């Protein structure tokens, strides 16, 4: 009798554990939803808006950072250095989760001028994350 209770208990615990585990695609969706819900409170120099878009089949998340900077060479130089620092800070604060990167999710991050042209594009994946964190 006690053995049956232990077997049933073990089975129930195993089922609860399996149901509570999320796969990468679920984590990707949750990250995008969470990111976009808190985007209005995002603060960074020159950034006016940020959004995330998930591509489940490609295992990719696109992060867009819209700025109030005009597209010119001096702002491009400024954007290049400030964007790298912003991404490093976001990774260290887990705003860009290392866990997702380690599970194979790629982040394509775009720093955009006021006319939505690209100042800088960074790809964050398993290979590039160490370089960004330097």
From TrEMBL:
Know the name of this protein?
Lipoprotein
- Which PROSITE patterns does the entry mention? PROKAR_LIPOPROTEIN
Q: What is the lineage of its organism?
A: Bacteria, Pseudomonadati, Bacteroidota, Flavobacteriia, Flavobacteriales
């Amino acid at each position: 009798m006690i053995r049956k209770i232990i077997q049933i208990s073990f089975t129930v615990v195993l089922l609860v554990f399996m149901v509570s585990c999320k796969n990468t695609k679920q984590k990707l969706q949750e990250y995008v939803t969470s990111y976009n819900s808190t985007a209005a409170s995002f603060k960074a120099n020159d950034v006016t808006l940020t959004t995330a878009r998930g591509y489940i089949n490609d295992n990719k998340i696109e992060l867009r950072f819209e700025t109030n900077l005009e597209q010119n060479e001096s702002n491009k130089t400024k954007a290049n250095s400030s964007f790298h620092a912003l991404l490093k800070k976001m990774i260290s604060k887990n705003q860009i989760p290392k866990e997702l990167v380690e599970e194979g999710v790629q982040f394509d991050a775009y720093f955009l001028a006021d006319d939505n042209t690209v100042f800088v594009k960074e790809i964050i994946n398993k290979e590039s994350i160490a370089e960004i964190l330097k």
